[in-house]
Design brief:
Distance between the termini: 13 Å
Number of helices: 3
Order of helices and strands: HHHEE
Oligomer: single chain
Radius of gyration: 12 Å
Largest sheet: 2 strands, antiparallel
Strand content: 5-15%
Mean pLDDT: 86
């Protein structure tokens, strides 16, 4: 089944992929919020929760920078 995500969720997912690929660590919530146009940590949490629910990432709520990308085929992510 192909997970459906919004444009904003796809933007967040893409930023996560790029940051983790370049830095071998997940970004801070502050960095991610700023990269997404200055959104609040609460909104970042909501985006991460949706991506985790859709099986695109693994996110440990109580760990620092505990975000892991779940391998997906590019064509497997629908808008």
């Amino acid at each position: 089944m192909t997970p459906k995500i919004t444009r904003r969720q796809r933007e967040c997912y893409t930023l996560l992929e790029q940051f983790i690929s370049e830095n071998q660590a997940a970004p801070s919530l502050d960095w991610l919020g700023q990269a997404l146009g200055g959104i609040s940590k609460g909104n970042v949490h909501r985006l991460l929760a949706v991506l985790a629910d859709r099986g695109l990432i693994r996110h440990e709520r109580y760990g620092r920078r505990k975000i892991e990308i779940v391998p997906q085929e590019q064509s497997n992510i629908a808008a």
